[in-house]
Structure formats: structure tokens, C-alpha cells
Write a structure and sequence with these properties.
Blueprint lengths: L16 E5 L4 H12 L3 E6 L2 H7 L1 H5 L3 E5 L5 H14 L4 E4 L15 H29 L2 E5 L12 H21 L5 E7 L16 H4 L5 H13 L8 E4 L19 H4 L7
Parallel strand pairs: 1-2, 1-4, 2-3, 4-5, 5-6, 6-7
Helix pairs in contact: 1-8, 4-5, 5-6
Length: about 270
């Protein structure tokens, strides 16, 4: 589907074909669910095929969702998938949400092997899909949404390896946009702060449930991505920073488990 300003309606993905990485959980899963509801046909990429099939069994039966079990750090597998889609079901949108972190994660503890593994998933995986899919995005004048992190902008608890990978995504997105904007390709980077996803369960000190209720939710990031790719084609939402309103602000995202404001403790049923 070739897109332009006249074929985009805010919140409507009817007729569009989207590929989402990290589709089995967290932000990626929320994007798949929201985009299916908005009318898209979605190709989901994740290592866990069974989880994707369980979540969207009805949509798979209706041929609106297609699962692809794949490791995003395998460049040959990414290229093969994108070549196959180019021939059979070209995509007009990429949402690249696959990512991970490591433990231990402080600079004095992270190993060479862990650093390299994280970079292969968080950075190389995004590059592979962008590079392998660029012809399809050019043909459709399509969109790429890259899920980075607010940690790309300010150092925080997430660790130097994770922060380096997410900062590199911002640089990559800016460079791709510079090269491809004249071809009608739009690149959006979303930089969320705390998001209530399974990745926070693997923190050295996971946040308590009351605090997690104040985090950005995966559905919020999905709505952000939907808005970015359905505004008129003449305009690009280049970068978006998201923070958790009651516990963070721009530039104030460094505390892994911030104190819940006293005014909120009663609302959450917590002891003062």
C-alpha cells in the first residue's frame, strides 16, 4: 500500500501491513494488539511462537496476524524474512520494539560477552530490520518506529551497556531519516522512561506493585506509535520522550524506584 497525506487517517490502519518485533510481550505485544484493533494486518516477530499464537489465535485464524519465530540478532534470518515478505506481503510499517537488559549491569560488573549480546539484540537487530526492509518502506512511503529509551538522554540505573545501545538507536534513527526522508520514509524514535513491562522484573531491585501502577503502561507507548504513523504524511514525528507523570519529569528519570508522592499513597491504598 502506497501512503501519502490523503491515505492516512489518525488512528486508522485499515489496509496497512505492519511488522512488529518483540511481539510476544511488553511494548511489542501492546503494539500488536492496538494495531490489529486499528485495522492493520500484523506480522509479529519474537522468539516465542507459542506466546504469539496464544495471544492472537483468532486474528491468526482470520489471517490478520502472522507469527514469525525469529531471533532479531540473526541478520541472515532477518534478511530472509524481509525478502519473503517483499515477494508475498510487503510491509509499509516497521515497529522495532525488541530489546533486553543484562544483570549485573553496572560498569564494573558487566562482562564483554553480556555487552556484545545486548548490542546484537538492541542495536544490530534494529539495523538489520531497517536495512532489510528499506526498499519496502521506500515503495510504500512508509513508517519506521524505533523504541529507544529515555536513558539514551540521561544516565540512570539501567546500566552503561543498555544506555549505550539506546543512545545508538537515536543516532541511527537520525541518520536513517537524513538519508531517507526525501524518499517519503518517516522515522520516529520513542524514548519512554519507566514502562511497566516484564523487563523490570529482572532489575536488581524490582519495583513494588504500587509504584508500577504509576509507570507508563505498554498500551500508552502503543497509542503513541499509532498516532505517529497516522498523522498526515507531510509531517514526521521525529522523536518523542515519554515520562511517568506523577513520579518523573523530563531530565528527572534517574531514580530506579522513586518515592511515591504522599498525596498519592492514599489513592493507591498504601500506608502513609
Amino acid at each position: 500500500m502506497r501512503l501519502d497525506a490523503d491515505t492516512r487517517t489518525l488512528g486508522d490502519l485499515t489496509g496497512r501491513t505492519v511488522l512488529v518485533t518483540g511481539a510476544s510481550s511488553g511494548i511489542g505485544a501492546a503494539v500488536v494488539t492496538r494495531f490489529l484493533a486499528a485495522g492493520a494486518r500484523v506480522h509479529g516477530v519474537a522468539r516465542r511462537r507459542d506466546e504469539m499464537e496464544r495471544r492472537w489465535a483468532a486474528e491468526r485464524a482470520a489471517e490478520r496476524f502472522v507469527p514469525h519465530p525469529l531471533d532479531v540478532s540473526d541478520g541472515d534470518a532477518v534478511q530472509a524474512l524481509m525478502d519473503r515478505l517483499a515477494a508475498t506481503d510487503p510491509v509499509d510499517t516497521l515497529v522495532l520494539a525488541a530489546g533486553r537488559n543484562v544483570n549485573p549491569r553496572t560498569f564494573g560488573e558487566v562482562s564483554f560477552e553480556a555487552f556484545d549480546d545486548l548490542m546484537r539484540v538492541n542495536l544490530s537487530g534494529v539495523f538489520y530490520f531497517l536495512r532489510a526492509g528499506i526498499d519496502q518502506l521506500r515503495d510504500s512511503r512508509g513508517d519506521a518506529v524505533i523504541v529507544s529509551s529515555v536513558s539514551a538522554l540521561w544516565p540512570d540505573h539501567s546500566g552503561p551497556a543498555y544506555q549505550a545501545s539506546k543512545a545508538a538507536l537515536v543516532a541511527l534513527a537520525r541518520a536513517v531519516a537524513r538519508d531517507e526522508h526525501a524518499n517519503g520514509v518517516r522515522v520516529t524514535t520513542v524514548m519512554p522512561a519507566f514502562v511497566n513491562t516484564p523487563i523490570v522484573d529482572r532489575r536488581p531491585v524490582p519495583p513494588p506493585p504500587g509504584l508500577r501502577s504509576l509507570f507508563i503502561q505498554p498500551e500508552d507507548v502503543a497509542e503513541t506509535a499509532l498516532a505517529a504513523i497516522t498523522i498526515p504524511g507531510r509531517t514526521t514525528v521525529s522523536e518523542i520522550t515519554l515520562t511517568a507523570t506523577r513520579i518523573q519529569s523530563i531530565g528527572n528519570t534517574q531514580n530506579a524506584n522513586p518515592e511515591i508522592p504522599e498525596s498519592l499513597r492514599g489513592e493507591l491504598g498504601l500506608e502513609a
